[in-house]
Amino acid sequence: MDGREHQEDVTLACADTRDRLQGYLDGTLAKSESVAIFLHLRDCGGCREEHEHLQAMFSMLDELPQLPVPDDFDARILDSIPLAAYREMEPLRRDRVPVFLEESYLPAWLRDARTRLAGLSVTLAAVIAVAVADQPQPLLLAAVVGAVPEILVRCQGWARQATLAWRRAEN
Ligand SMILES: [Zn+2]
C-alpha cells in the first residue's frame, strides 16, 4: 500500500485500524504500525471506543477462572466409550470378508448347482468334441465359458476361506 513508509505521519483509515486492533492489543504489530494505531486512536472517537471494548473483553477473558482438570478425567473419558460392547463384537468383525468375497456377491443363478453342472457338462462335451473337430476354436471357447460359473464360485470360496484363516491367525 502507498504511504506505508511514512506510517508514523499518516492517519490510518478506520477500517485498517480496526483490522489491527487485536494485534495492537496483543503487541504483535510492528512498532511503526503500533504508533500509527496509537495516533489514530487518539484522534478517532469511534475507533477508541472499539479499542476500549476489545480491551474490556480481553481482560474479562483473562479473569475467567482456570478450571482444574479432574484427576479422573482420562478414566471418565474411557468409561464413556462402550469398550466392552466393542470387544464383544470382535468375532463379528473378524468374520467379515471383503464384499466381493461374500457368497451373495455372485448372483444366485450362477451359484446354483444346476448352472454349474450344466456349465461343466458343456465344457466336458466341448473338450471331447475338440479332439474330432475340424474347427476347434468355437469349441475351445465353449469349454472355457462352460467352466466359468464353477471357477468363479470355487475361487471365491477359496479366497473367502483364506481371508478368514488369515484374519484369525492375525488376532
Ligand atoms: Zn477511526
Quick gist of this model?
The protein contains 9 helices and no strands.
Features:
171 residues; mainly alpha; 71% helix; elongated; disordered N terminus; binds zinc ion
Question: How would you characterize this protein structure?
Answer:
The chain is 71% helix and 0% strand. It has 171 residues and is mostly helical. The chain folds into 2 domains: 7-63, no CATH class; 73-170, no CATH class. Helix 1 (14-26) packs parallel to helix 3 (45-63). The two termini are 64 Å apart.
| Total number of helices | 9
Overall 3D form: elongated
- Sheet with the most strands, sense and barrel status: none
Query: Approximately how much beta-strand content do the residues carry?
Result: under 5%
How would you describe the oligomerization state of the chains in this entry? single chain
Tally the beta strands: 0
Q: Secondary-structure element sequence?
A: HHHHHHHHH
Instruction: Output the structural class.
Output: mainly alpha
Ions, cofactors and other ligands present here are:
zinc ion
List the uncertain runs.
1-10
For the record, the count of structural domains works out to 2
Helical proportion, percent range: over 70%
**Mean pLDDT across every amino acid position:** 85
